[in-house]
Every structure is written in structure tokens, then in C-alpha cells.
Task: inverse folding
């Protein structure tokens, strides 16, 4: 989780990722951010986040993103 | 068999009667036979191409499904496997699957490329060779372009890619899958359906529902109204100006381009309403393809409201795979280090947008004017994205509220102007004509040309212009209500039955009376049929 928060803070230092739970719903992050977040996560965690995983519920919070990463790491 | 014809309505009535008369398990077979009959009536030679696409994508998906299952069995049989072992097995399965997918896509997009783009490619290669002093080498052929090939190829390709991604299992029945590819309402101009949203609806037997059939009638009438009363009438004005553009003032050229924007919208969305209405009669809900695009405040929003199913296809199967690819991620990281976070984040995605819109442009046809049309849209989106911080600063400087009505109206008007400039390329018969018309619009623009009876020289009578004006007001009013969330058909449903009946009769008569018909006149083909 620490690594993920580091990635998120690097890409969007203006957002409180530890507490925000509606990142997509409140339009705090856009599709450009998601593309960069996915690119970084794919590289750092050696996973492949698929197009079908690009759902708002998977990116609304750091916890949701971490859950997705964990699922893909265990696949 | 045109949608605007007695033949089509008779055909639909026949399918409707047969569908609800036969036992449930045979109903999808009625749809399959009707779909192939519909296609054969257009041109029986085209059946070969839709059959190739159906067979190749069906068997490719079956092979992909088998690989997905094999991989899942492997994981189940080896619960002790560590992550590295799982990854190795997955990589092996992916390599196999990728080969199958590539073959299927190459074959299907190859057919599309040859039939639709070969002559364009050959003409450009030959013209280049001529300029270099070499004799042309590539001959031109008179190639058959099957009806709706761009639509059904994309629909079938989407299905194979979804199975490759293991989004769902492949269809187990060739004939049922053949119906998904060929369902007759969508054959002419889409919408591009998704297997997981459409296929089950096609196979399930639907029961007759009076309310649904009334909704279907209303939707079809609305479509016929848009097509025959507005689009086909505006076509006269647009053709008059575009075919003789040197005789008109720049202001009238711009008016014609704007009118073409309305024509193509009422033509395409009218056609889609007819298609969706026809499917609703059979209990099938097809994807929405338009959401009042001229209410968009930006070009990117316009494309989320216009030809939605093509945009969604491009997003899922082209934009994201490219944007999430390793080279683009590397480029993003490189730019982030060199030029900062904003450029690192936006520039690679803007490049992808530009590529996607290039494909969208080419999808419309094999001509340079479509290439420019795609780049025009993609370029504006890329520029707007990169300039977003500047726009934000300007709004703050002038104390403009982003969601205020005046600003939104300004943005809608700006978007409409930008879209209209792009229309010059779509409607002109060649790229030089589009440039010449654009130049004339800017260098010879006199608002006075719109007065002094100038509008009466555009091929339409005073009465016809007045009728178009009134119809556009109606279209605008309906659009505003829908934007505000009113579900009009459900509201109408609450009215007393005689009033509803009178309204439907009025709609039928307005289409019959005001539609562009008459002796010796055929309703114009749908514009998107040629794409």
C-alpha cells in the first residue's frame, strides 16, 4: 500500500489519497490520471490492469486500487 | 430495401407477426432468417463477406475460449503454484491467444481494408510514383463494398477481443452467433452492439407487450419525422450550395455547412431511432447512439454524445490499449522528468487521441478529407487538453463560473462552430473543394447575404424554410426537456388514451404530409449507409 500511495502522491501531489473515497465520482482524477496510475502500477507491481478493470469503483480510493492490485497479483 | 419505404414496413410487420406467432424457442430463428433475407435483398453477393466474418470470428472466439479454459484448468490443477509459475503459464496462454486474435483481426480488417481502402491506397501510390517520374503500377478495381461492413466488422471484432480478454465465454452456437452479427435493423448503419448487452436479448423469446410496442411506434415515428421532414428537406439546401459553392457568399457557405450538421444529425439519429424502434417491436433494446450532441460544451463531450457506440468501441479497443501500452507509459515517464507532471500526464494521451481520431476519420471513408476531419477533431481535443490549465486561469481571471448558463451557452456555440468547420471536409466532394469553401467562408463573409432574399436562392421555398425552422424549434424543445431529465414517452403515457392516440395520428400525418415525398421521388439514402 505504501508503494501505491507513493505513486499516487508523485502523480497528483494535490490530492489526499489516504482519506479520499470518491476520486472518480468527484472528478478529482480524470482518465489521464488513471492511464498514468495504471501504467505506473503495471510496472511497479508487475501486473496487467486490463481495460475491463478501468471501472470507477476500482479507482475511487487508494484502498480500492490496492484491492485490485492485490487481486491481480494473486491471479 | 430502404428503411423509408413501404417494403421495409411490410417486411417488419411480417417479421413481427411471425415472431409472436411461433413458439418461443423458434423466435430467434425467425430473426436470423429475416436478417439474412434483408441482407440478400440489398445485394446477395454481400452475403459471402458477412458469412466469412461470422465464421472466422465465431471459430476464433471458440479457440480463444478453449485457451482460456485450459489456462483456468491448469491453475485449478496446480493450486501450489507460486506467482512466477502462474505468470509463466499465463504468458504462454497469452502468446497462443494473441496469435489467434491477430489472425482473426487481420482477416476481417484485411477484408475491410481491401474493399474500402485499396483504391485510395493505389491512387495515392500511383500519384506519388508519377511525381517521381515512374509509371503507375497499381491498377484501380471496381470493388464491391458490402452494406454495413464497417459496422458488423467492428461489432464482430469487439466480440473476439472480449473473448480474448476473457470477459465472457464464447457463444456455443454458430447460428445464434450469426444472428448477433447480422441482426437486420443494425445492418445498415449500426449501432455497433456489444455481445454482452445484445446477444442474450436476441436469443430470448420475448412476449408481446402493448406498451413497449407503442413506445416502439413513437420512436420510429420520431425517427421518420427527423429523417423525412428535416434531413431530406435540408439536403436540398445543402446540395444546392455545396454543388455550386463558387456562386455563394461565404456567409451562405457557412450556413450550408451548419445546415449539413443538422441534416447529418437528423438523418443519422433519425435512422437510429427507426432501427431502435423496429428492434423494440421485437422486444430488443439496442444501444443508444446519440445523446443530443449539439448540447455538448466541448469537442470531446460532443464525441461522447455523437455516434456513441463507435466512440465507445474506439475507447475500449483502441484508445485504452494504446494509452496503457508500455511505450506510451515510458514516454509519459520521460516527459514527466523533462517537462513536468502535466506534460508527462497529458501529452502521451493526447498523441493517442490524435491516433484514435485519425482512425475515426478513416473509418468514415477512404479519402483525404476524412483523414483531415479525423485530425481536426483529434487536434482540437489534444489542444484543449494541453491548454486546460490556461483556460482555468482565464476563467479565474475573468471570474467566470464554469457551470453558469451563459458560459455553458458560449461553450455550446463554440463547440457547434468547431464541429461545423469540420463538416466542410465531410460534405465536400474533395479536399480541394473543402479548402476552397473554407477560404471563401472567411474571406468573402457578408452577413448581409443572409438577408435580402439570399436564403430563397438555396433551393427551398419560403414555406419549406419556415417549416424547417419550426421543426428545429420542436427538436430544440424536446432536446432541452430530455437534457432536464424528462422521460417524454413515459410522460406521454400518462396522458388520456384519446390524446395519445391523437398525438400518434398527428405524428403519422405530419410525416406523410411534410415528409419529402412525391411522384418520382425516393427518400434519400441514409448518409451513414455509405460509411
Result:
Amino acid at each position: 500500500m505504501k508503494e501505491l500511495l507513493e505513486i499516487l502522491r508523485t502523480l497528483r501531489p494535490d490530492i489526499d489519497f489516504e482519506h479520499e473515497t470518491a476520486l472518480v465520482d468527484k472528478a478529482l482524477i480524470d482518465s489521464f490520471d488513471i492511464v498514468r496510475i495504471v501504467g505506473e502500477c503495471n510496472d511497479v507491481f508487475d501486473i496487467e490492469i486490463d481495460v475491463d478493470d478501468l471501472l470507477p469503483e476500482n479507482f475511487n480510493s487508494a484502498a480500492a486500487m490496492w484491492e485490485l492490485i492485490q487481486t491481480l497479483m494473486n491471479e | 430495401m430502404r428503411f423509408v419505404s413501404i417494403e421495409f414496413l411490410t417486411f417488419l410487420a411480417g417479421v413481427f407477426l411471425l415472431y409472436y406467432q411461433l413458439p418461443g424457442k423458434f423466435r430467434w430463428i425467425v430473426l436470423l432468417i429475416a436478417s439474412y433475407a434483408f441482407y440478400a435483398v440489398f445485394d446477395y453477393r454481400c452475403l459471402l463477406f458477412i458469412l466469412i466474418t461470422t465464421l472466422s470470428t465465431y471459430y476464433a472466439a471458440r479457440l480463444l475460449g478453449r485457451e482460456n479454459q485450459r489456462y483456468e484448468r491448469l491453475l485449478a490443477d496446480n493450486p501450489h503454484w507460486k506467482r512466477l509459475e502462474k505468470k509463466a503459464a499465463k504468458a504462454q496462454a497469452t502468446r497462443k491467444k494473441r496469435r489467434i486474435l491477430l489472425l482473426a483481426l487481420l482477416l476481417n480488417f484485411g477484408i475491410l481494408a481491401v474493399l474500402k481502402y485499396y483504391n485510395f491506397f493505389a491512387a495515392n501510390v500511383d500519384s506519388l510514383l508519377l511525381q517521381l517520374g515512374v509509371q503507375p503500377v497499381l491498377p484501380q478495381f471496381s470493388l464491391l463494398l458490402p452494406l454495413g461492413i464497417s459496422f458488423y466488422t467492428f461489432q464482430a471484432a469487439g466480440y473476439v477481443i472480449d473473448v480474448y480478454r476473457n470477459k465472457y465465454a464464447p457463444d456455443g452456437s454458430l447460428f445464434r452467433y450469426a444472428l448477433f452479427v447480422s441482426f437486420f435493423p443494425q445492418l445498415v448503419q449500426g449501432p455497433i452492439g456489444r455481445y454482452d448487452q445484445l446477444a442474450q436479448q436476441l436469443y430470448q423469446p420475448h412476449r408481446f407487450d402493448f406498451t413497449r410496442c407503442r413506445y416502439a411506434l413513437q420512436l420510429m415515428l420520431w425517427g421518420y419525422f427527423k429523417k423525412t421532414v428535416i434531413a431530406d428537406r435540408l439536403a436540398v439546401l445543402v446540395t444546392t450550395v455545396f454543388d455550386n459553392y463558387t456562386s455563394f457568399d461565404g456567409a451562405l457557405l457557412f450556413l450550408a455547412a451548419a445546415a449539413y450538421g443538422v441534416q447529418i444529425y437528423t438523418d443519422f439519429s433519425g435512422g437510429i431511432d427507426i432501427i431502435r424502434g423496429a428492434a423494440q417491436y421485437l422486444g430488443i433494446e439496442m444501444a443508444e447512439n446519440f445523446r443530443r450532441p449539439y448540447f455538448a460544451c466541448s469537442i470531446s463531450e460532443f464525441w461522447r454524445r455523437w455516434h456513441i457506440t463507435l466512440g465507445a468501441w474506439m475507447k475500449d479497443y483502441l484508445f485504452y490499449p494504446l494509452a496503457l501500452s508500455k511505450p506510451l507509459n515510458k514516454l509519459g515517464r520521460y516527459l514527466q522528468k523533462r517537462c513536468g507532471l502535466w506534460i508527462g500526464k497529458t501529452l502521451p494521451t493526447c498523441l493517442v487521441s490524435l491516433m484514435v481520431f485519425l482512425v475515426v476519420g478513416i473509418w468514415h471513408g477512404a479519402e483525404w478529407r476524412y483523414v483531415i476531419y479525423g485530425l481536426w477533431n483529434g487536434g482540437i481535443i489534444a489542444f484543449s487538453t494541453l491548454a486546460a490549465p490556461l483556460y482555468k486561469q482565464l476563467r479565474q481571471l475573468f471570474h467566470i463560473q464554469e457551470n453558469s448558463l451563459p458560459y455553458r451557452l458560449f461553450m455550446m456555440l463554440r463547440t457547434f462552430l468547431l464541429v461545423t468547420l469540420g463538416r466542410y471536409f465531410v460534405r465536400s466532394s474533395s479536399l480541394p473543394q473543402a479548402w476552397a469553401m473554407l477560404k471563401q467562408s472567411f474571406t468573402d463573409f457578408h452577413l448581409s447575404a443572409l438577408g435580402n432574399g439570399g436564403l430563397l436562392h438555396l433551393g427551398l421555398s419560403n414555406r419549406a424554410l419556415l417549416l424547417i425552422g419550426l421543426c428545429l424549434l420542436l427538436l430544440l424543445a424536446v432536446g432541452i426537456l430530455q437534457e432536464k431529465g424528462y422521460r417524454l414517452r413515459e410522460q406521454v403515457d400518462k396522458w388520456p388514451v384519446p390524446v395519445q392516440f391523437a398525438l400518434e395520428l398527428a405524428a403519422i400525418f405530419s410525416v406523410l404530409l411534410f415528409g419529402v415525398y412525391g411522384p418520382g421521388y425516393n427518400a434519400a439514402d441514409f448518409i451513414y449507409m455509405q460509411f
